[in-house]
Amino acid sequence: MPAVDVVLFLGVLPLALSAQDPAPFPPPRMEPPIVTPGKTSADPPSDALILFDGKSLAKWRSGDGSAAKWQVRDGYMEVAPGTGDIQTADPFGDCQLHIEWATPSVVKGEGQERGNSGVFLMGHYEIQVLDSYNNKTYFHGQAGSVYKQYAPLVNASRAPGQWQSYDIIFRAPRFDEQGKAIERARVTVLHNGVLIQNNVAIFGNTYHDRPAVYTVHAPLEPLRLQDHGNPVRFRNIWIRRL
Hints:
Blueprint: H1 3-19, E1 49-52, E2 60-62, E3 71-73, E4 76-78, E5 86-92, E6 95-102, E7 117-121, E8 125-129, E9 164-171, E10 174-175, E11 181-183, E12 186-191, E13 194-201, E14 221-225, E15 233-241
Antiparallel strand pairs: 1-15, 2-5, 3-4, 4-15, 5-14, 6-9, 6-15, 7-8, 7-14, 9-12, 10-11, 12-13
């Protein structure tokens, strides 16, 4: 480095360091509220809303607003193929969601026809449910994908018929007054306790047959579960508003 450059560098350095001098960080003004955790990480904490308790679909509706038509037995709900998607009676935005699911133990079909369903955050943004145990398909369509946008970081699938879990942290998109998305939705997903989506930015509605694009919607929208024609089971569903 030429001598003149060294002199200039040394002259600027104290100013740069001065700009980074630490200052006392202002303390939070509010004490964090107390939330009693569940006995295990799968159990709902005290501030969670139970969406399915294994007994009733009272907190779910069909797409047309009528009573949900899926089957409930032995502590789980099961897709009744052909009856359509179901969605929560209450709307949600930013949230922490826990949901457990199982694909049929008797394997039928392959690829996208094998144990297919989906968890649609706000009814628009799908985290794929699929039997991805020794089942090849396109990478951004396997279990845990942000459908047609992001493949999971790893395939953490259990064998068909075994119960699996998603723990999802979701931040809803933000729209301006003209309906333009000024902040994309973001999601983090753990599949069976394994991180598979790490705070990824969603590009818009997770369409199957067209590019992702945002369409303006309310700040709170129902959570939707998909009827893709396969008898997928769900249980222990709870959510926390964030």
